Amino acid sequence: MIEVVGLKKVFDNKFEALKAVDFTIEKGDLVCLLGPSGCGKSTILNLIAGLLSPTAGDICFNGNSVVKTEPKDRNIGFVFQNYALYPHMTVLENVMFPLTVGEKKIKKNEAKQIAEKYMRLTNIEELSQKKPGTLSGGQQQRVAITRALVQNPEVLLLDEPLSNLDARLRLKIREEIRRLVKEVGITTIFVTHDQEEALSISDKIILMNEGVIQQNDDPQNLYLEPNNQFVAKFIGNPIINMLPIEIKDGKIHHPAFTAPVSRLTDIRFKKPMPDGRYTLGIRPEDVLTVTQNSLFETSIKSVELIGRERILNFDLADKHLKSIVSIEEIIEEGAQVAFDFQFKKAFIFDDKGERVY
After folding, report:
1. What gap in Å lies between CA 18 and CA 147, rounded to an integer?
2. Which residue among 43, 72, 106, 272 is least packed, with the fewest CB closer than 10 Å?
3. Could you tell me where in the chain the CATH 2.40.50.140 domains are found?
4. What is the β-pairing status of strands 155-159 and 76-79?
5. Along the 357 residues of the chain, how does pLDDT read in single tens digits?
6. How far apart are CA 166 and CA 164, in angstroms?
7. Pairing of β 276-282 and β 16-25
8. How far apart are CA 52 and CA 45, in angstroms?
9. Residue pair 44/4 in contact by the 8 Å Cβ criterion
10. What pTM was estimated for this model as a whole?
11. How far apart are CA 267 and CA 43, in angstroms?
12. For residue 343, what are the contacts with CB-CB under 8 A and spacing of at least 6?
């Protein structure tokens, strides 16, 4: 188990990369650190690895602090973004290398047996005599992961390991990483800025922004139950629709529509919602086309065909909105369409971006 308590990092230039971060990762879990560039996710990874020292706070492995432990003694495997393979060595030699150096080095024949065992696990045994320069990006990635696993580390750290691969290969390799770490049973921390990547392979996601954890939760909860406006906007593709509204006299007011507050579901309120100005968040799949009892009507500016779905783009007051409908709904550009919102699945945020509903 990994425990991070009050972790803070301020660099020499006074930039505060982390602001008192706390989280726990259970043994065997695959956790993604997700967020935009500069949010602090790679800083956390480097602090856990021992490549950086914290300004304050503690990092514990199984109840023991490792803050003052040298990186080589933390029993971690680290896969870098650029793979960091030795070009003059064969694949087998690269995988064996960590076992043949340092205080815990073992005999070469023993190292070879262990390396070959993990190479079979990652399906790279046929590459054993090749040099890294002759391998594809996906093959190099597998070699880097195998080399990290060969020392049987307590924790595996992956820093944006798929960013150099094309889209189809990323999909394949991320499935392999999930299978592999679960098969080995190793605690894994995976840094990415790609929400689809994080949602598809994680047991938990820690979503960060500006050095602060915005939500630490099961992947589906970041989409279905975001803590705040940042989480709602960051998670989801197409991005959530956001509209300024005013709550007054039991009604939701917008320049293009008015709806009773009674359309909201009582159990979804997070705190009281007095009259005032708010932001309404509604996912594109919850903007419904209707034939009667519409909330508003508008003309369609453009239509995108995505597999089995159409994305309808339209303007409402001064905001651009999207609706996702089935490909079977034949709606063309310029059509006048009546819409309603599925308010029971909507979100409402206050002026600080905190979720009210």
Report:
1. 30
2. 272
3. 241-349
4. parallel
5. 999 999 999 999 999 999 999 999 999 999 999 999 999 999 999 999 999 999 999 999 999 999 999 998 999 999 887 788 999 999 999 999 999 987 778 999 999 999 999 999 888 999 999 999 999 888 998 899 999 999 889 999 999 888 777 778 788 888 888 988 898 899 999 999 999 999 999 999 999 999 999 999 999 999 999 999 999 999 999 999 999 999 999 999 999 999 999 999 999 999 999 999 999 999 999 999 999 999 999 999 999 999 999 999 999 999 999 999 999 999 999 999 999 999 999 999 999 999 999
6. 7
7. unpaired
8. 9
9. yes
10. 0.91
11. 38
12. 259, 263, 264, 265
Measured over the CA atoms of residue 259, residue 261, residue 267 and residue 268, the dihedral's sign is: positive
For helices 167-184 and 137-149, angle between their N-to-C axes, nearest 10 degrees = 20
CATH 3.40.50.300 placement within the chain:
2-234
Question: What CATH number belongs to 241-349?
Answer: 2.40.50.140
Fold of 2-234: Rossmann fold (3.40.50)
Contacts of 206 (CB under 8 A, 6+ apart): 23, 31, 32, 33, 34, 41, 213, 215, 216
Q: Cβ of 293: how many Cβ atoms within 10 Å? A: 7
